[in-house]
Amino acid sequence: MRVLGVDPGLTRCGVGVVEGVAGRPLTMLGVGVVRTPADADIGPRLVEIERGIEEWIDRFDPELVAVERVFSQHNVRTVMGTAQASAVAMLCASRRGLPVALHTPSEVKAAVTGSGRADKAQVGAMVTRLLRLSAPPKPADAADALALAICHIWRAPATNRLQQAVAAQSRLQQAVAAQNRLQRAVAPHTPKGRTS
Q1: Is the pTM of this model over 0.85?
Q2: Which one, of 68, 62, 74, 109, lies nearest residue 88 by Cα?
């Protein structure tokens, strides 16, 4: 599986591509940051992020895009910018028919470090170790993007099994309901008021 991880942000949008399957060594194919000037208007900044993500999709041809789920912070302005950059990443993927997976920061930290409360240095160190890199990717947004891709690759088998189990349960319930309707339809009918 080849996953493009996106750590959304207006000034620095981290991007990283990881390939592999759960239980096997993973390979980093690329890592970087799409940058926009903080003093520019929002519209042109979003266009720059779109162009950057489109270039990464063209270059690496991922099967899926994993984006950090935006969560509430104290700084509303930061949340808005993150949400806007996140929407651009989802749009780029969806326009090409690529599935999008959203993971919370604590899910990513827990998957990569074993603790949902890990700090950026711990995430960077584990990404470095897991991908057998010589040094942690800089800036931290780049390491976070790789962590998102790793998280998705590791979580995908369990998520797929859960989705398959839910689908199987739904099919079973539909079959039982159909069987019950059929039994009622063919059951002997005794007219009211008559006894044998």
Answers
A1: no
A2: 68
Q: Residue 105: which of 77, 133, 82 has the closest Cα? A: 82
Q: Report, as residue numbers or ranges, the catalytic residues.
A: 7, 68, 141
Alpha-carbon gap, residue 81 to 88, rounded angstroms = 11
Question: What is the distance in angstroms between the CA of the first residue and the CA of the last residue of the chain?
Answer: 69
116: left (phi over 0), alpha (psi -120 to 50) or beta: alpha
Contact between 43 and 85 under an 8 Å Cβ cutoff? The reply is: no
Say how many residues make up the chain.
196
DSSP reduced 3-state for 19: strand
Strand, coil or helix: 174: helix
Number of Cα atoms under 13 Å in the Cβ half of residue 180 = 6
Q: Could you tell me which residues come within 8 angstroms of residue 97 by beta carbon, excluding any fewer than 6 positions away?
A: none
Residue 41 DSSP symbol: -
pLDDT digit string (tens) for 49-97?
999 999 999 999 999 999 999 876 667 777 888 999 999 999 999 999 9
Residue type, 75: N
